[in-house]
Amino acid sequence: MFRSLDLFISLFALIILSPILTLLWILIFLESGHPLFKQQRIGYDQKIFLLIKFRTMPMNTKSVATHLVDSSAITPIGFFLRSTKLDELPQLLNVLFGHMSLVGPRPCLPTQKKLIIERRKRSLFKVKPGLTGLAQLSGIDMSTPTLLAKTDLKMIKKFNLYYYFYYIVFTLMLMFKKK
Fold first, then answer.
1. Which residues contact 66 (CB under 8 A, 6 or more apart)?
2. How buried is residue 127: exposed, middle or buried, by Cβ count under 10 Å (0-12/13-18/19+)?
3. Which of 56, 112, 123, 156 could form a disulfide with 108 if both were Cys (CB 3.0 to 4.6 A apart)?
4. pLDDT tens per residue across span 133-177
5. Directed axis angle between helix 2-16 and helix 18-32, to 10°?
6. What pLDDT digit, counting tens, does each position of 59-82 carry?
7. Residues 6+ apart with CB under 8 A from 163
8. Contact, 1 vs 90, CB < 8 A?
9. In the beta sheet, which residues pair with residue 36?
């Protein structure tokens, strides 16, 4: 059921947001030459997939976790994209392709060893990673791996249709509030 919802909502969102996506694509292309950024992430069953985002840093910037990025490396458009979370919109393609769900633990980098260990302990790789979830809405990022994994587990244990929509709607409310 959640996969069907993911497909429907992500396809619908991509169609509705296509004018915004096109505009952002053009602006980023003009600024940095390549609008998309692809990064290896760990997904369901610890399989590697390429996470797709809008580029917020120059092409030659080292690929690291967001909380480790020096703010001087972020482009002017990148600041706007990150502050509004619009840089995440291309991940709707990851949802469409089945690498991710709309709701689930955020996918981690293969270099985030402590987080991988904490998630493995809690069997969190048995669910698809998501665009949003309880940890993101609680302001918990990957700099606190144990707390993040515990929060992800709390979300997964209580997960149902109500919470699926709750996390999506709450995320959208926060995005529009920031704008």
1. 141, 142
2. buried
3. 112
4. 999 999 998 899 999 999 999 999 999 999 999 999 999 998 777
5. 70
6. 776 665 555 556 677 899 999 999
7. 103, 155
8. no
9. 54
Burial (CB count <10 Å: 0-12, 13-18, 19+), residue 177: exposed
Residue 34, burial from CB neighbour count under 10 angstroms (0-12, 13-18, 19+)? exposed
List the one residue out of 78, 170, 168, 158 whose CA is nearest residue 131: 168
pLDDT digits (tens, 9 = 90+) for 110-130: 999 999 999 999 999 999 999
DSSP-based three-state secondary structure for 59? coil
Residue that is written with structure tokens 């600041």 in the block? 79
> Strand 48-54 vs strand 36-42: parallel, antiparallel, or unpaired?
antiparallel
Which segments within the chain are labelled E, that is strand?
A: 36-42, 48-54, 101-103, 130-132
DSSP 138: T
Cα–chain-centroid distance for residue 21? 16
Q: Of 54, 172, 35, nearest to 103 (Cα)?
A: 172
Q: What is the pTM of this model?
A: 0.88
